[in-house]
Amino acid sequence: MDRVQLVLLGLPILLFCSDVVTLFAPLPPAAPQPDNQSRPGPNAFQPGDPSADASAQAVDGPGSGTTVDLKFCASCSYRGTAMTMKRMLETSFPGIHVMLENYPPPFPKRALSKAVPILQVGAMATLMAGDQIFPRFGMVPPPWYYSLRANRFGTMASIWLFGNFAQSFLQSSGAFEVYCNGQLVFSKLSEQRFPSELELQQLIANRIPDSHDTIDNNIPDSQDTIDNNIPDSQDTVDNNIPDSQVEENLEDLVLDDEL
User: Fold this and answer.
1) Which residue of 19, 132, 188, 210 shows the fewest CB atoms closer than 10 Å?
2) What is the C-alpha separation between 124 and 143, in angstroms, rounded?
3) Which residue ranges does the record annotate as region Disordered (predicted)?
4) Which residues of the chain have pLDDT under 70?
5) How far apart are CA 212 and CA 93, in angstroms?
6) Strand stretches in the chain, DSSP E
7) Given this model, what pLDDT does residue 75 score?
8) pLDDT score of 189
9) Which is nearest to 171 in space by CA: 15, 8, 22?
């Protein structure tokens, strides 16, 4: 084989090996957090400092005590949309706690995605050494094997590309689920669309007690104002009618006296 064939053969094998190592490698340990409590800075607040209490109260807002979970498909490139929604919620409801989390696909798809690299390696090994593999199982190499082997480098590249595409498809869930205090408020899997910023803001506002009470308290006030104004206008009309009627009766009496 010449150098071009060696490069075409070695590149897919190298990429396959890197995919397999990355897939089955354990997660790296988390980096240790620095211990800032043992060495407080010059501007650190003491527990009894009144300014610390004031700053703690300033952090509280209408969204304090509310937790929103944004579970999205990380392999579908939904992270940018999730970050935009997180910034919008934190700006609209100060004190709210927004968490981002990957929404995994169902277990059958996850299991098949882990089996794809094994199938890729098996297909490449069969393509390279099929003359020795098929006779060991008492089989005669089929005709399609010879047609694929005639263009083995193109076939290996196609196996690698389609395998990676299938693995990416099986690892995607297409989800963008929004939970507020553990309750589902929006689901892309059922709606088949993303929520708008105003829609998501209204859905979260309906789950926050402070904003809900404010809306409920404003509605009866306006209704009472309308109800109080209607009787006043009705009393005014009722009071004006007898006055005009009395004047007409007095004029009739004067005319009768003159006659």
Assistant:
1) 132
2) 17
3) 31-63, 211-242
4) 1-60, 210-259
5) 13
6) 67-72, 97-102, 176-180, 183-187
7) 87
8) 93
9) 22
